Amino acid sequence: MNEPCTVESGLFKKTPCGQASVAKCATCERPLCSTHAVAQLSAAQKKTGVFMCKECDTAKKDYDKTEAKQAEKKKQAEMMKSLANPAPPRKPGSPAPAPAGAPAAHAAKPATPAAAGKAAPPPPPKPADDAPLEFTPAAKPPAAGGDITETIEYKPEPKKK
User: Fold this and answer.
1) Residue 51 β-bridge partners
2) Which residues, listed in sequence order, are joined to residue 24 by a DSSP beta bridge?
3) CA quadruple 27, 28, 29, 34: dihedral positive or negative?
């Protein structure tokens, strides 16, 4: 690598480094000297032999953080969706539900022909196990000791001089 390092250095007056390059940035192909080359590490924290400039390394770390946050948000959204629409719980020991298109094993037959002519009112639908409860609170009876504001009073003490 015959090219000089092109990373700008200096506090007030930025000038190219100029040292002999030992590697090129894996992202932007910029020649880097041994001082400015940032070694990339594998997941096991071992050197991979790939180098990047400081700017590209910072951008890669920012991208990885953003991607991890998005993956976490997606995972959390899927979890919330599954909590909002849970599968109906099965009671232990109960048989598996039959498919909707399967015929009933024991169909009820009317006992008399007269009963077959009359349509019996259908039973009220059974509420689902995961359905919300309908509850209307009733007015509470007064407490035995009376109103609570009568039993607890705040009396400030006079200030001492």
Assistant:
1) 39
2) 31
3) negative
Tokens at 158, concatenated: 């006079």
pLDDT in tens, 14-70: 888 888 889 999 889 889 998 889 988 888 888 888 899 999 999 999 999 999 999
HEC string for 17-51: CCCECCEECCCCCCEECCCCCEEEECCCCCEEEEE
Burial of 109 (0-12, 13-18, 19+ CB in 10 A): exposed
Residue 135: how many other CB atoms lie within 10 Å: 5
Using one digit for the tens of pLDDT, what is the confidence trace for 92-123?
A: 666 665 555 555 544 455 555 555 556 777 87
Q: How far apart are CA 64 and CA 52, in angstroms?
A: 15
Within 10 A of 77 (CB to CB), how many other CB atoms are there?
Answer: 10
First to last CA, the chain: 88
Closest CA to 129 of 90, 92, 98, 82: 90
Round to whole Å and give the CA distance between 125 and 37.
73
Instruction: Return d(Cα 100, Cα 28) in angstroms, integer.
Output: 61
Instruction: State if pTM tops 0.70.
Output: no
